[in-house]
From TrEMBL, chain A:
Cross-referenced Gene3D superfamilies: MetI-like
One cellular-component annotation, GO: plasma membrane
CDD domains: TM_PBP2
Major location category of this protein: membrane
Key words of the record: Cell membrane, Membrane, Transmembrane, Transmembrane helix, Transport
Residue ranges occupied by any ABC transmembrane type-1 domain in the UniProt entry: 72-278
Entry protein name: Spermidine/putrescine transport system permease protein
Pfam families in the cross-refs: BPD_transp_1
Organism listed in the record: Billgrantia gudaonensis
The keyword Membrane appears for this protein: yes
Lineage: Bacteria, Pseudomonadati, Pseudomonadota, Gammaproteobacteria, Oceanospirillales
UniProtKB/TrEMBL annotation, chain B:
InterPro entries: Bact_Polyamine_Transport, MetI-like, MetI-like_sf
Protein name: Spermidine/putrescine transport system permease protein
Subcellular location: Cell membrane
Keywords, in A-Z order: Cell membrane, Membrane, Transmembrane, Transmembrane helix, Transport
Domain ABC transmembrane type-1, residue spans: 63-259
Superkingdom of the source species: Bacteria
Annotated organism of origin: Billgrantia gudaonensis
């Protein structure tokens, strides 16, 4: 037993201590920064204080301002809308792939996934090219009166939503496809034999079976979307900022490390609530079946 | 809706989605061959941006940094990660909850929190001790940290897929632990090691946020260079660099398709 324990220690210790030293300690340090005061150049200083959380809630030198609150609400809203749209597109796509001939399926999946292998900065840059003022897409939108003349579709909140949907679509298609592929069609046939309407057949025979995949996809999409930095930074402009940008800005230009760290804590809380909620929902609705994350 | 019209609608959605997925990439590639200076209109075919690229030392050094970072970090992560994978398999009957939490932490942590934690930590260590100056070294450390879990999980799942009798057989033949490792373990997990290496490499090349926050002034990688160029005001050269990176991805995609064709997954 002692030998076994030593064996475990020898194989696992280097990697485990690497992660502890280079990730657990740094994030613990960042957490602690949130409870310090902001000194020269925004670096953390003693004494301990909760000033950073007050600032995060919008209380500044000039009284309360809603800027940070807007940023927070915008992050939640963008995450919600983007995840909803991703589900709406990915559901039919995943179903479609699963009904095509077996030899085509790997190619179709690859076609969906390949864009996500390219660098995020480049993908987002592609959308900047497409949505800038004067491009065909922007001109159409202007002609339809959707945007003000010469404004273009970017920078805007709409561009950020589009960028998020584009970025995360593959992460929803893959788990949903996995669910559709092992769909028990006997249940659907049974529903049809019992004269269930297509809608009812879907609701009772198809949807519950795809739920684990759907939940896994929501975790893979919503959590990183909430903490997104690149897309709002490039496509959003000043009024499209999300929590990730608020946090990042506190470590660059207008530095205030404790405020940034407080934002990071908020993001972590949201992440773990999200993970936990999905597990709970998955367990309850999936009849005890674990959601694989 | 009849079955046929449902089928037709789905096919329509499928092709529209493909258009949506590839249009931005196609636009980048198209404008890299643009003769004009502006990104607003395409005036004619030219290779001038690619020629300018070859003489741009900043881009060449960013490319070199990307490659050094990806290769070194993948090798280190492979070395560390495969031991964790084996340890997790060997001791899978024990309670390893703490280890699972550690392994999943780099995966679930939002990129921005990951990057900023490391950056803040490295800056403070550097101020106190003089070690860990931001640069390629700190970037390698950060990349290894997010690559280890993927290597460990790939190696672990390869071991789980093996017949336990194989381990018994190797023992019964009185092979020493070292010989077992060299002649049995290593060859059997070779495919897992290869795919773990390629995944680590891809993750490293693909990463922007974590690199961005742990980089020093001299250690810009290609994505960081492109980011800077976009922020400064778009130069058509970016389209050319980006297109070369897209071409590399396309080659890998086709290769993986051919590979999976040859061997049904």
């Amino acid at each position: 037993m002692v030998r076994e324990s030593r064996h475990l220690l020898m194989t696992v210790a280097p990697g485990a201590s690497w992660i502890v030293f280079f990730l657990v300690l740094p994030s613990a340090y960042l957490m602690s920064v949130a409870f310090m005061s902001s000194g020269t150049y925004g670096l953390p200083e003693m004494p301990l204080s909760l000033e950073s959380f007050r600032r995060l809630a919008g209380f500044g030198f000039l009284g309360w301002s809603p800027g940070n609150l807007y940023t927070l609400l915008r992050s939640l809203w963008q995450t919600l809308v983007a995840t909803g749209l991703v589900v709406a597109i990915a559901y039919p796509i995943a179903y479609h792939i699963s009904t095509c001939r077996a030899r085509w399926r790997p190619i179709m999946l690859l076609a969906v996934v390949v864009p996500s292998w390219t660098n995020q900065v480049i993908r987002t840059f592609g959308w900047m090219n497409l949505l800038a003022p004067g491009t065909p897409l922007s001109s159409v939108a202007e002609a339809l009166g959707l945007v003000a003349p010469n404004m273009g579709l970017y920078p805007s909140n709409f561009a950020v939503t589009l960028g998020l949907v584009y970025n995360f679509l593959p992460f929803m298609v893959l788990p949903l496809y996995a669910a559709f592929e092992k769909l028990d069609t006997a249940q659907v046939e049974a529903a049809q034999d019992l004269y269930a309407s297509p809608l009812r057949a879907f609701r009772h025979a198809v949807f519950p079976q795809t739920l684990p995949g759907l939940l896994a996809g929501i975790v893979l999409v919503a959590i990183p979307a909430f903490g997104m930095y690149v897309i709002p930074e490039l496509l959003g402009g000043g009024k499209g900022m999300m929590l990730g940008n608020l946090v990042a800005n506190q470590f660059a230009g207008s530095a205030n490390w404790p405020l940034g760290a407080a934002g990071a804590i908020l993001m972590l809380i949201a992440t773990f609530i999200g993970l936990f909620a999905m597990r709970r929902i998955g367990k309850r609705l999936g009849g005890g079946e674990e959601v694989v994350i | 809706m009849s079955r046929r019209s449902l089928r037709r609608t789905l096919t329509g959605i499928w092709w529209l989605t493909l258009l949506f997925l590839y249009l931005p990439l196609a636009v980048v590639a198209l404008f890299s061959f643009n003769a004009a200076n502006s990104a607003a209109s395409f005036t004619g075919f030219s290779l001038r941006w690619y020629e300018r690229l070859m003489g741009n030392e900043e881009i060449l050094s960013a490319f070199a940094n990307s490659m050094i970072l990806a290769i070194v970090s993948s090798v280190v992560a492979l070395g560390i990660g495969c031991f964790i994978g084996y340890g997790m398999y060997r001791h899978r009957h024990r309670k390893l909850g703490w280890l699972i939490v550690l392994i999943y932490l780099p995966i679930v942590l939002p990129d921005i929190v990951f990057g900023i934690s490391e950056m803040a930590f490295f800056v403070q260590i550097h101020r106190l001790t003089g070690f860990l100056q931001p640069g390629l070294g700190t970037m390698i450390i950060a990349h290894v940290t997010f690559q280890i879990p993927f290597v460990a999980l790939i190696v672990y799942s390869r071991f789980v897929g093996l017949d336990p009798a194989l381990f018994e057989a190797a023992k019964d033949l009185y092979a020493s632990p070292a010989k077992r490792a060299l002649h049995f373990m290593l060859p059997t997990i070779k495919p897992a090691l290869i795919s773990a290496f390629f995944l680590s490499f891809t993750l490293s090349v693909d990463d922007f946020v974590i690199s961005f926050f742990t980089a020093g002034p001299e250690s810009a990688t290609l994505p960081i260079y492109i980011w800077g160029a976009i922020k400064k005001g778009v130069s058509p050269e970016i389209n050319a660099v980006a297109t070369l990176m897209l071409a590399a991805v396309a080659i890998v995609a086709i290769a993986s398709l051919l590979f999976s064709r040859r061997r049904p997954v």
